[in-house]
Amino acid sequence: MMNDGSALPSNHTDCQVVKVPHLVFFVLGMVSLSENLLVVLAVVRNKNLHSPMYMFICSLATFNTVSSLCKTWETLMMVFSDVGQLDSRGDSVRRVDDVIDALLCMSFIGCICSFLAIAVDRYVTIFHALRYHNIMTMRRAAAALAGIWALCGVAGAVMVAFCDATVIKIFFIVLFLVSLLLILFLYVHMFLLARSHARKIAALPGSAMPHRSLRGALTLTMLFGVFVVCWAPFFLHLLLLMVCVENPYCECYRSLFQLNLVLLMSHAVIDPAIYAFRSAELRHTFRKMLLCSDSPFCYKVKTLFH
Length: 306
Prior knowledge:
78% helix; globular; mainly alpha; 11 helices; single chain
């Protein structure tokens, strides 16, 4: 399983493997599952959110939902195994574990691809605003998402089937670095444009400081920073597995593997707050869903108590 520390070499070192309690993974999984499922339902229910940007956000939330569900189920399996109620060496348990790991790998790759798709969408929105609806059509967005899900599904299965192969780790690391560089280029370009527009508007007579543009640029910086903080330690772990297997200092870092998984899961918790909850339309939809103000069923229930 992905958080059992089996990815660590068996070299002798003074550093002890850091064990994160199962409760932490379970709580993170349940919180992430609730948040991302709420985002998916909101996008599906509200026709005003049926646009390419929200399709990409919904895809990201769906990948996070799958990973949270799998991680929660995996944590429960480990709890039952620790108390002797489940034989972790059984063939059926191993097959289920392989399916869970494949879905987790698929979700992790899908999060990166969805994050990149959102960055591209926002880039087109800023630099090609007049042609946005011609460039980013619903059909093209749906085709892009179909390609992302197909690629991630195949990649997840291949990565689990050949998990011991070095080329799989290289592929994962290269995918992360390439996506990181592309996202960095897009966000830096957008940030510079927003700052340039802010200076031009501020130079006009009687104009106020364009807080909205600067706020948007700050949001982009925050998105990229959270992405790097949550994902970079895990990929550094994969890199150290290949380049310095015998080094005791590298093994000390690899002993923190479960903490890296906590960061990955935390990103799935932070995602809805950054991408979705900053949207006024989504917040309005959440409010209607949570207060049960637009459902015929809820209306009937309320009438029964009045």
